[in-house]
Amino acid sequence: MLAMKTTLLSTAVLSGLSSLTSALPTLPTLTTCTPIISPFLLITTTTPNCGPSTTMPNVSAISVYDPAHSTTLNLRTILPGYNSLPNFTLADGTLQTISFGPFGLKPQLYNATGGTSNQPLGFQAAASPVGRLGLSMGYLLANNDDDSEGWTLCKDSYGETVITWQGTDPSCQHTYVQATNTAPY
């Protein structure tokens, strides 16, 4: 008789615990980000979450852009059909890439000029002081000590969509700039 009461009690306790645990909210599954290997590509997306670049919402590849044969290159979004994408590295807080200079001069090392409010992220073929750029959480391009929220996509005077820090033009849209080792399309 005692064994039967113990079994009934155990069954009741287990049933109660099962009901309690099924009523608890489920925790979100944590995504493990693949570590970014340098050199890397850059993309824009509407999410700060990591994942395969091919599955990111509103994803765009980024290429360097020479507006009007300027000595300063900008970063612009580029649609599928590109021949190649630039590789980037980070050194002492400075984002770097190798690109051809104005009028197709030989390839040169270009250093980011830093994220200045309401200005495109520019690159110049000149020595750069220690910069303020980095990869927050290992993949989000960040400015000013880990701030990845200020990047915007803005139309420039040529109609190109360029990466701008804290753009204020009505054409500007908030974006996240992410480092990735795979092309988005």
Give an overview of the whole structure:
The structure is a single chain. With 185 residues, the protein is mainly β. The protein has one domain: Trefoil (Acidic Fibroblast Growth Factor, subunit A). It is built from one helix and 14 strands, in the order H-E-E-E-E-E-E-E-E-E-E-E-E-E-E. The chain has one helix spanning 2-23; strands at 41-45, 60-65, 72-78, 88-91, 94-100, 107-112, 119-120, 122-124, 133-136, 140-143, 151-155, 161-165, 173-174, 176-180. The strands form three sheets. The protein has an eight-stranded antiparallel beta sheet with strand order 4-5-6-8-3-2-1-14, with no helix packed on it. Strand 4 (88-91) and strand 5 form a beta hairpin. It starts with a helix and ends in a 5-residue tail after the last strand. The model is unreliable at 2-14 and 16-30 (pLDDT under 50).
Describe this protein with a few key phrases.
Trefoil (Acidic Fibroblast Growth Factor, subunit A), 1 helix, 185 residues, four-stranded antiparallel beta sheet, 14 strands, eight-stranded antiparallel beta sheet, mainly beta
Any idea what the radius of gyration is? Answer: 24 Å
How much helix, percentage-wise, in residues?
Answer: 10-25%
What's the end-to-end separation, in Å? Answer: 70 Å
> Which stretches are poorly predicted, pLDDT < 50 over at least 5 residues?
2-14, 16-30
The CATH topology = Trefoil (Acidic Fibroblast Growth Factor, subunit A)
> By helix and strand content, what is the structural category?
mainly beta
